[in-house]
Amino acid sequence: MADTSEHRLTDGVSVGAIKAFLADLKKEFPDTYTEMTTEDACKQLVVPRTQQDNCAYVEQLRKQSPHEHVGKATVFVSHAWRYKIADVLNVLLEFAEEQRVRKEDSKPVFFWFDLFMNNQNANITANLPQEWWSTTFKESIANIGRVLLVLMPWRDPVPLTRAWCLWEIFCGVSNEGTEVSIRLPKSEESELEAAIRESSKSVMDTLVLVQAQRAEAFNPRDKDMIFEAIQNGVGFGALNQAVKDQLRAWCLSKMVAAVEAMQARGEDKTEVFAGLCNHVGIVLNEFSEHDRAIAYYQRALAIWLHTEGVKGLNVAAVHNNLGVAYNSKGKLDKAVQHHEQALAINVEMLGETHPSTADTYNNLGSGYYCKGEYDRAIAYYKKDLAITVETLGKTHPNTAACYGSLGGAYYSKGDYDTAIEYSKMANEVFVEALGEKHPRTADTYSSMGNAYADKRQYDLAVDCYEKSLEIRVEVLGQQHTKTADVHNNLGVVFKSKGEYDRAIASYEKALAIRMEILGERHPHTADSYNNIGLAYADKGEYDRAIAYYTKALEIGVEVLGEKHPSIADSYNNMGNAHAGIGECDRAIGWYERALAIKVDMLGEKHPSTAQTYNNVAEAYRNQGKYDTAIAYHEKSLDIKVALLGEKHPSTADSYNNMGNAYADKGEHDMAIDCYEKALAIKLEVLGEKHPSTTMTRGNIGLLHEKRSNKERVDSGTAAVDSAYPNTRKVARNLRRIRGDSDGGDSEHDNGVQQQDTGSDQVQALAGQQDEADEADERQGCSSQQPLVGWLQKRGRRRAAFRPCWCKLDDSHFAYSKSAARPPKRRISLLDVLSAELAQDNSELHVAVPGRTFIFRSDDRSDTTLAEWCRAINNCLNE
């Protein structure tokens, strides 16, 4: 094994040495030095000067002036050898001057710069063991204390494609106390500032397309060693995220600085300034800094109101952005208010049947959907559908997207049959237009699977999910977040069937994929931990469940912050687990924390708030505090009736659970009244043979038995499907009431059955389908592959760029607001005139008759703009 002690990174070269080398380059190569790369300088100047002594350039400097030119390194330089050497050296000099002027450190700056510090006559790192990269190298950077990343060109920065540079950046950001500074050459700085004023968040996105596993190195052995260090250490997901976070923060600081610079120049009343504020607001909102985003949007709005008036289209655009920001904050009423203002402008200025008006109807539908007001959401989705049908026809993929939106709303409304009907309509259009083997088609199968699962038709649900899985594996690959979502969905169904080991296996498949692609610190990874915990809870292994919930909660709080609905869901789950082991006081404490967040973020009148009231009620019921339990059930019921209506499965569940509390209290007449209300709803909405209907029948039977009314015990045992765990208890109890044999199961459940819809357990299915993956068990949003992923799309009339979820197959290119939202537009490839890169490859232009759609990169995508462009053109040429 090589002696690695001599390879510790300790020395650096002075500013004077950098200046001298730059002067030597200019002297030796007066006509070409400005175009020479670092590699050129190595071959043409460094190697000839050091070849005879077979040493590093720093050794010659040490001989010339050991104290003036060489000292303890204070800055580690990360750069790409394809850069122009003059640009790199000038960045180092500019950085050193900044430190001198700011007087941040009285000590002189010494740069660890590999061109000078390594012996360029031999590959000294070739025989270093893998552990050197993950220990000695990382520790050396920590000892230096600062990493300077030279980033250029800003539109396509080379370091983000080089394995060496990514590892160097990570070694900096992962060491506590090590500062990472990012710099551009002066010429690039001015170009970036100009681009920021004209464009939007896409400027940032150009800098953060980080996929370490796709990075390359000049020497394949270097790449292998670095990859091994990553895989044995933090993993690619964590590396990607750490580098992205650092670069995004830097880019955001540059954008804010551009705003401040315009303000300092007295340009803060111009429309250009308004556009810049709008762009910065989009970035801030994407970083979950919603309050700061709103502040920037308000500045833009004030200017556009002055220059365009209240009916300006830019005014409409910023109202829409404000709606998005308030929605992200959970301030849903304000979100809807701003979307309605945008709608009023679009209807008056563009007309009722304009595509932008249809988009706004869709946004409003999504807003009311998030509020839990499904009837109003459906009304707006139907307006969107009417415009789409009128302009594009019934068999257009955009129309199928509208069917999907309606299916999702009906699903959440509890009208599963109508949801399935709309999902099938969407499926038929997509199969005809895009083919069976397409991600959009797979989405519709998942949507149907969700509805069948909630109808307790689990075999049909599994069949739909397996069709979706087959397509996604074939089209997107096994290691894809959308594939992980289907594994997760299958886990939900297996859990509902009581097949907990199969459920855990499916959840663990989803977790493994998410860990690899998204990393440990990601909301969807937290969802997987949460779901595994739910399965263990249902198995009765509450300690293991709590351990998984704790892991999910740690990640969630770090990534999303304390006040977020997903955190409330985790608190809810912790409460359920503690209730399961009889710790009702601790359970109530968790529920109350969840309730506080939900009331604050979602409002009192929201289905999720109602469900938490239900959980608190059940905890008090388990404590024997029946009056308090009934009071909380009444709060839950009032919200559900107001939002979902009297005839909704969740409303029926509240009647059922309230009946349980009255039954435990001994008020059997009140209990039966509640049960019969629940039964009437379930018979109408779910049908005679639904397990939930059977459960309520069983509760009524048990109460009549207690009152010696055995003749009124339901005789319809045939309706009980005892294949499912939630109805096995009912089957046994009904047989016991009539004196039948229990088929060998000696355990009897003498108590009434609490209705468990699953929503109180908050099972998250990340990356919902655009059509209808909207189950209580499914997560709200958020992915990547050449045919599926995030991009930034510019709005009409040069409005701001906004993130969109894009999908491509050989027939259509579709985009939506997110993977969890219904699609906004589907572009038939038959209509596409061209797809090409523009603006120095920073934009993808997709032209159709009368319009050009403009897209830019998004940091969450695995796919570059060039790959999108190539994929679209491949489809056009087939």
Automatic annotation (TrEMBL):
Residues 784-877 form the PH domain. Residues 751-762 have a biased composition (Polar residues). It comes from Salpingoeca rosetta (strain ATCC 50818 / BSB-021). SUPFAM superfamilies: HCP-like (SSF81901), PH domain-like (SSF50729), TPR-like (SSF48452). TPR repeats lie at residues 316-349, 358-391, 442-475, 484-517, 526-559, 568-601, 610-643, 652-685. The keyword Hydrolase does not apply. Residues 737-750 have a biased composition (Basic and acidic residues). This is Tetratricopeptide TPR_2 repeat protein. Residues 737-783 are annotated as: Disordered. The keyword Repeat applies. It comes from the Eukaryota. Keywords: Repeat, TPR repeat. InterPro entries: PH-like_dom_sf (IPR011993), PH_domain (IPR001849), TPR-like_helical_dom_sf (IPR011990), TPR_rpt (IPR019734).
